[in-house]
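Protein folds are increasingly written down as discrete tokens. With that in mind, we are printing a sequence and the tokens encoding its fold.
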Amino acid sequence: MKKPLIILVLIFTLFGCEQGPLIEDYKIEGIGLGDSLVDFMSLEKIKKGIIVSKDLYYFRVNDFAQINLDEGLKTYERLTFFIKPNDSKYIIYSIFGNLYFTNIDLCYERQDKISEEFSNRYKDAEKSNGTKKTSEGMIVNSRGEGELRYVYFDFISGDRIAIQCYKYEGGSNDLYISLTKKEIITWLSIWK
């Protein structure tokens, strides 16, 4: 009697715990949330990035630091990471992949394609989209006023995937794809 009961419990456990893909499953340039930045950058560059980050987030620098990577990338022109500066493993809490476009319509095309891919992959995430001025609840970018078109995939955990096209008055158009843990979303909310 014990064997059939154990088998039933195992079957229900295996099939009952099935869940969709997690945000950690997605990689940008082969890098995912929860990875150690040390595996992708030299310790020297990370430490220099932490120092530069102090100028950006001077009053909250001990919480998180922003580190940029501009070289050796295959798809993106720049990656931005958020890590805890006092963590010796420099675990990644957020990744932003950045692409530049000369034409905003090309940015929107790419955004739509990526959004469709994520819609199919992350069916359990709550999807929202819209448009707003870049100065609404955000730090005004050094390139001036602009418009943000966004698609968000919010997970039950509080984590988020964002696909954002920024159109600035000066003609610059940026696409950001970001994977962000809840802790970073909360921390960045101080800028609103």
User: Anything to note?
Assistant: The longest strand covers residues 92-101. The chain has one domain: 23-191.
